[in-house]
Amino acid sequence: MVAPALLVTAGLFGGGLILTVVQSVGVDPVLGGQKVTFAAYRTLAADPAVRASLLLTLGVATLSTGLSAALGTALALLLRRAGRARLRFLAGLTLPVPHVLAATLVLLTLSQSGLLSRVTAALGLTRGPQDFPALLFDPLGVGVVLELVWKETPFVALLVLAALTRLDGRLHDVARSLGAGRAARFRQVTWPAIRPALLTACVLVFAFALGTVEVPLLLGATSPTTLSVLAYQAFTDTDLGRRPLAMALSTVLAGLGALLLWAYVRTGSSR
Amino acid sequence: MSGLSRRPVPRRWTPGSVLLGALLLAGAVGPLLLLGVWSLAGAWFYPALLPGEWSLRAWASALSPDTPLWAPLWGSMWVGTVTAVTATGLALPAARALNGWPGRSRAWVQSALLAPLILPAFAGVMGIQVVFIRLGLADTPAGVVAAHLIVAVPYAVAVLSATFAGYDARLEDAARTLGASRAAVWWQVTLPAVRSGVLVALLMAFLVSWSEYLLTLIVGGAQVRTLPLLLFSAVQGGDYALSGALGLVYLLPPLLGFALLAPRLRSAA
Amino acid sequence: MTRLRPTTSSFPLMAPLLTALLVTATPQSAAQAAAPAKPSAAWAATERAARGQTVNFYMWGGSDNINRYVDTVVAPAARKLGLTVRRVPVTDTAQAVNKVLGEKRAGKVRGGSVDLIWINGENFRTAQQAGLLKTGWAESLPNARYVNWKSPAIRTDFGFPVNGSESPWGSAQWQYVYDSARVKPSELPRSFAALAAWAQRHPGRFTFPAPPNFYGNRFLRQAMFELGGGPQGFAGPFREATWQRASPKLWSYLDGLRPNMWRGGRTFPADLPQLYTLFANGEVDFAFVQNIGGVAADVQRGLLPKTARVYLFDAGTVSDTHFVAIPFNAAHAAGAQVLANLLLRPDLQLAKLSGDTWGDGLGIDPGRVGPAFSAQVKAALKVGPYTLDPALLARRSFSDVDATYDRRVQDGFRAWLK
């Protein structure tokens, strides 16, 4: 019964990954016959722009995951305390917002001439666009991180909240009656209950941050840019000689993802 | 807010929860408002807080019969619906089977089913594109659906697995012993029990497809036009008035779907 | 906002000012137009074959003006010929070329997905070298009689012979945009040296889109021309010695400019629309435009403020032609030819020139259409605050140089960034 679904995820996607790896070593799966070469990987390793891009990609993914996790957990705890379905609904409203649109909103709001900058100008806090912090199109990817955090915080919050809802409230009462303080109760009761959900959420957010193209294209600097953007640019280059580079970059990204998946499954099964 | 508090609620609105609510409400309504104002802006430059000129140009441009809003809207709807139905159809038996799966191998099968959530989907799609061209799937809505399924199926599996986790398979056995056919059990016992989950899975799969940008671009070659492609090029083209109008059109269907199904989200998760 | 990738011939010496050819009618050419060509039997067959076809027209889709022109002017006219135009928007023309390349490599020699590409310059050269384009069709289109095929700007694209594998669609010339509310005309920098001095007095108020973006690259090439003693020195095929002599001057010029640029030159806008946003919101004081109609359409659209103006540097600016081409494996080649022919029709060319729609320069020679048409052209252009006098443009224009300079500037810029 799992076969049809596996046909998509393992067959179509897994098969596609194998073809990506094959093409990254210079073999054309249709024409075939070429010699295996690791030239694409050597080119990547020698290119300082790729190294800068790798650092940026990992930095953006780590930072946005960390921030979404912290803010999302806090939001979940607040929502749990408030205990209202309406609030939960409002918090969840960013979930269906597509990333292209979310990036557009960030652009309209946070650019140096965006809405927020106009508000600070109207309040006399800034005298011109240049006084407003340069959050977008910056080499550190701040704009990309902000978009991801805005989109993913509620996602983390709802996953954590679901875990909190399953947590038996009486555990807290027992801990309190045993003299546990606020911090101790969080550490001993709440944290173990939300940890698996939080971990899952973090892995998903990190994975998305690794693979997104539209967000850095709309909000990131022209250079350095993320590995996924480099891969896409190489894939659509008129120089077909750059195709193997695209495939190699994709392979590297898939490798990072596989590492993440392996670590996740290991943590999951060790519990 | 008064409208909200008139209903009997178990707890009172504390200042904290009112503040949180106000923040969340601003976060939800703000973007809609921003898009709406931009869509009606004629010329709106820094440091003006409101457009200096109002204009219906963007809406006229977006809604006139000659312009290409309709094809992408239809494209997004078609691809999203087919993807959602197919993904849920594939995920339903898989999730049901996973529920009773024994021990260690379950983790493996589950990993294989959920891998595209963690590995970048475009990495596989770039590799397979050359085969899609050969098979004539490139540039077709069917090819785009196939690519979207890679991401939509795992989401549907995840949602339905959670649904089936709380499902008591003994109900099916009971129905069988009472003489129900296999099909009757499926339609009259299994499906009603997981209906909420199925609806949520449909919504999730639709949203995944509705949001997808890169896979559509790679496989559809810009010929299969969807709303995110149209919005992206409007934003990159610096036309924020048009972006505002397109953004609203793009945002409303998923918001509506989410609002309708939100009450079921918790019961399914 | 015309924006295509690099462009045009390597004949700066001949620089026969396309714009002049296009906008100034000569009596001889008017006489030529008096005898309309009779459509051949072959063309009638093409038209018949095209009936009912849907042409996939791949073009850069970032400008609402251009999109609307195609959707509301071209497409309805095509419908009358029994042809459906499906405009396929791409973020970069290279994507369309890449697509045909991919199909060729996958062995798809017919039934290709791309029927017509808006193209010129480097992309044309790449496509032509890879054997991706149908050749020898453009000059036999009925409306090709309006085109001045003798003009070097039309005979060659990027120094590459066009050989009838591209049909001209329009023409463009580089212009600078400033905001008259912020910069007085007397203060305008009219050379690259003056620009650097201006930036020093007004730090953070200038930037350009980063190459490989077409506009950034063309800006830098023009800077190189001035620093290297004028475009004449770069004429003809690429010469390593010329590059070695001129390029260090370009990089040291940029070294001096960089700290005075927007955001200290640490980051750049990715494309022209981003630069327009910065300009319109007062973050920077200059932008660029390539439309012969200047910024009229962009002001009307509300993208640029009403105080925006266009001007030229004293040494002149680059002008060029852009084309449409048909891939070798196009599924609807007949339809694509009928569409290419339609794009040359004088009434459609005229509609395109108007600042109310797009402001793109003509691809045809008005003199070959007739004196009445020349008068209409003059009326459509509406010289004024947003549009420069075409005669001035023509006087101050030169052609671009060999594509290799383009590639070198792009690579050099990437190295310079670090």
Automatic annotation (TrEMBL), chain A:
PROSITE patterns given in the database record: ABC_TM1
Organism from which the protein derives: Deinococcus indicus
One of the GO biological process terms: transmembrane transport
Membrane topology, from the record: Multi-pass membrane protein
Record's protein name: ABC transmembrane type-1 domain-containing protein
Keywords of the record: Cell membrane, Membrane, Transmembrane, Transmembrane helix, Transport
Subcellular location field: Cell membrane
Family, similarity comment: Belongs to the binding-protein-dependent transport system permease family. CysTW subfamily.
Signal peptide coordinates: none
Transmembrane segments: 54-78, 90-110, 148-167, 197-219, 245-265
Automatic annotation (TrEMBL), chain B:
Listed InterPro entries: MetI-like, MetI-like_sf
Superkingdom of source: Bacteria
Membrane-spanning segments: 20-49, 69-92, 113-133, 145-167, 198-220, 240-262
Family: Belongs to the binding-protein-dependent transport system permease family.
Name of the molecule in the record: ABC transmembrane type-1 domain-containing protein
Gene source species: Deinococcus indicus
Major site of localization recorded for this protein: membrane
Keywords for this protein: Cell inner membrane, Cell membrane, Membrane, Transmembrane, Transmembrane helix, Transport
Gene Ontology biological process: transmembrane transport
Cellular component aspect of the GO annotation: plasma membrane
Membrane topology annotation: Multi-pass membrane protein
